[in-house]
Fold this sequence. Notes:
It is a single chain. The protein is an alpha/beta fold. It is about 35% helix and about 30% strand. It has 5 helices and 7 strands, in the order αβαβαββαβαββ. The chain has a 7-stranded mixed beta sheet, sandwiched between helices. It is globular, with a radius of gyration of 15 Å.
Amino acid sequence: LIRIDPGESFGTGTHPTTRLSLGLLEEVVARRKAPSVLDVGCGSGVLCVAARLLGAGEILGVEVDEASLDECARNALINEAQFRASLVPLAEIEGAWDIVVANILPHILIALAPALVARMAPGGTLLLSGVPTRDETFPQRFGDAAGTSLSLVGARTLDEWWAGVFTLGAP
């Protein structure tokens, strides 16, 4: 059970895109021992909290909204699930991450595609959500924008929303 006080931030855990992200995150974290997780657009920190409770190792949430950092800290505290949160731009984040997750609107995901893929560790996984199911060309457009070979290895829908799991290279 995760308790979230979103305050001024986005993310209570009840929206279909968040529920999709949580389900996929649970599956992907379970396949690895203490994977590192980068949550891009972390909002209230709900996915970071979930990653910690699921057994992830290093966790970093990045956000553009300064108020979100306070919400992340509060939600980490009430869930006893510590993680780092930062306003550092994605392109300036160092290191490679086993799991990169982003639950953001499609046009922002497309714009961030090269930076999202650049943060993936070898053998890493990219979880994307926030895409309406009617946007059937999103996976191809995202792959084209990323500028590298990506494989869509899993996808789910809930209500009218889509989420996908990508890896680098051929499946």
